[in-house]
Design brief:
The complex is a heterodimer.
Chain A (H helix, E strand, L loop, with lengths): L4 H9 L17 E7 L3 H12 L6 E4 L15 E2 L9 H12 L1 H5 L10 E5 L2 H16 L5 E4 H7 L14 E5 L3 E2 L2 H14 L3 E3 L4 E7 L2 E7 L2 E10 L5 H7 L7 E13 L7 E4 L4 E5 L4 E12 L7 H14 L8 E12 L5 E4 L5 E5 L9 H14 L13 H4 L16
Parallel strand pairs in A: 1-2, 1-11, 2-8, 4-13, 11-18
Antiparallel strand pairs in A: 3-7, 4-6, 5-6, 9-10, 10-11, 12-15, 12-16, 13-14, 14-15, 17-18
Helix pairs in contact in A: 2-7, 2-10, 3-10
Chain B lengths: L1 E4 L3 E4 L4 E5 L13 H10 L7 E7 L7 E7 L5 E6 H7 L5
Antiparallel strand pairs in B: 1-2, 3-4, 4-5, 5-6
Classes of the chains: A alpha/beta, B alpha+beta.
Chain lengths: 417, 95
């Protein structure tokens, strides 16, 4: 059943009796061509593109809990492609182009809103760095606008321009950046994949991998053994735990907790996404009016899905420093998600040493914006055994070979990215 | 989180900075045959356990000692802390 404006009107006139459930709830079959472990944004997108682009329908997505219950429902919903390095920017620009056509593609309203993202500069050096970044973006076909102080003032007059310590000198804007309704991304991909024959199996925890002679034959789950020609793992913060079951106990990844926050609903205030260049604080306003914001990871290994108060204080101080007017807004909710922090801050989409076992991980706290391209590239890898042209740098062995993609230039220290 | 400092008693974790897995104490031999592979493993690879984790914390805003803290990554409960110096010596490090 397709969704459309016509459909909404028809159902409104007939008592909303014609709506069907958006995806099935199948029991697992004994075997599939491809099994995806992890029913989050990346796993569901992978299944969707496997079916839609690569014509694979004997595909299952296994999810321990319910789909969209992990990081795809816990992020700050920002999309952008303002990266610097050649290994990254084409991939994220590919992702942004997929976002732009996503709702038509999977026939689901994901509320993709290209309301722009603005990175503020507070020093001359930072402005120079943004000019370089903006040029790098344009070289890869993305859009970028370098704003001076008055340009920023026209967009966001409420900012603390004349702060003695961190005056705002300008900013780098990407007008095509913005926000997306994150839950709808999971639902849209799930529905799109299901309609093309993919089995989405919830409440099905992977408890082990059956590996014989260096080849992965399938997965042991809480609902029995499921055979698979290929297994793709896309479990974000649980990567260490899941891959340990496949014998890969050491990976270039640490799991950390990142907190996010929503204020009470306010009248329309922020034109787009704004990031603070002197502290770590990024904020947008949801369509319901709440300010959605976040900052740094807590900084210590964690699987707890909740953080500690000092980081709450630090993030809110960043917000107060940038826009003192929000000081009287009350915090409505806060939560934590587990990030798979890689050693160079860039992701991994690659084969593993075990034949038939593939890994999609290391997204740090930037996985949401990458969802469509990550799914497409992982599907490409699973279907063709070759990396997608925008994801050739995301190799698992790049640390051993000396090909880190160190976007931030801070080296092998996962709790800094 | 409160870290039970072996010399100073319970201290707020905010006084510390975090480095990571305590295996970073065991720096490989740079003259060894397998130095390149050993340093790759040392620098980039992590066990990343869900559960008990021994990790290095630096008392930057305190007595500037390095501690090995045992903490549960699933609950953030801290089981204990030792001076990293003592841990390193127990593992045979001379200085």
């Amino acid at each position: 059943m397709g969704y459309s404006g016509f459909r909404v009107i028809k159902e409104a006139l007939t008592g909303h009796k014609g709506w069907e459930r958006a995806w099935r709830d199948p029991d697992p079959q004994p075997a599939y061509d491809i099994v995806i472990v992890g029913g989050g944004g990346h796993g569901l997108a992978t299944a969707y593109y496997l079916a839609r682009i690569f014509g694979k329908s004997r595909v299952a997505v296994l999810e321990k809990g319910w789909i969209g219950g992990g990081n795809v429902g816990r992020n700050t919903t920002i999309i952008r492609s303002n990266y610097l390095l050649p290994g990254n920017e084409p991939f994220y620009e590919f992702s942004l182009k997929l976002w732009e056509n996503l709702e038509q593609d999977f026939n689901f309203n994901a509320m993709v809103s290209q309301r722009s993202i603005l990175n503020l500069a507070h020093t001359d050096a930072q402005r120079d760095a943004y000019r370089r970044r903006g040029n790098a973006m344009r070289l890869h076909g993305a859009d970028s606008v370098l704003l001076d102080k008055e340009g920023v003032r026209r967009v966001a007059p409420f900012l603390n321009f004349d702060s003695a310590r961190f005056p705002i000198k300008g900013g780098l804007m990407q007008p095509r950046g913005g926000t997306v309704r994150h839950d709808a991304v999971a639902w849209g991909y799930a529905r799109g994949a299901d309609r093309r024959g993919v089995d989405i199996i919830q409440n099905c925890e992977v408890t082990g991998f059956r590996i014989e002679g260096g080849k992965c034959l399938g997965v042991e789950t809480s609902r029995g053994f499921i055979g698979a020609g290929k297994v793709g793992v896309a479990v974000a913060g649980s990567t260490g735990r899941v891959m340990a079951q496949a014998g890969m106990h050491r990976l270039p990844i640490e799991s950390h907790v990142l907190q996010a926050f929503v204020s009470e609903g306010l009248k329309p205030l922020l034109p787009g996404v704004i990031t603070y260049g002197a502290g770590h604080f990024y904020v947008s306003q949801s369509d319901k009016g709440g300010l959605v914001f976040g900052g740094d990871i807590d900084g210590y290994n964690s699987y707890a899905q909740r953080g500690n108060l000092p980081v709450v204080e630090d993030v809110c101080e960043g917000g107060m420093s940038l826009m003192p007017m929000i000081g009287r807004a009350r915090l409505l909710r806060m939560w934590g998600g587990i990030m798979d922090m890689s050693m160079d801050g860039s992701p991994i989409i690659d084969r593993t040493p075990t034949e038939g076992l593939y890994l999609n991980a290391g997204w740090c706290y930037g996985g949401f914006k990458a969802t469509p391209a990550s799914g497409w590239a992982f599907a490409h890898l699973l279907a063709t055994d070759t990396p997608h042209e925008t994801a050739t740098a995301y190799r698992l062995d790049r640390f051993a070979r000396g090909y880190m993609i160190d976007e931030k230039g801070v080296g092998a220290q996962p709790n800094l990215h | 989180m409160l870290i039970p400092h072996p010399l100073l008693g319970p201290r707020d974790a905010q006084e510390f900075t975090y480095l990571g897995d305590a295996s970073l104490i065991d720096r490989p031999d740079w003259q060894g045959e397998d130095a390149a592979a050993a340093f790759h493993d040392y620098l980039y690879q992590r066990d990343n356990p869900a559960g008990l984790h021994r990790e290095l914390w630096f008392h930057e805003q305190g007595d500037r000692s390095w501690l090995v803290v045992t903490r549960n990554t699933l609950t953030h409960e801290i089981m204990g802390a030792e001076l990293a110096r003592d841990v390193a010596r127990a593992r045979g490090r001379g200085k």
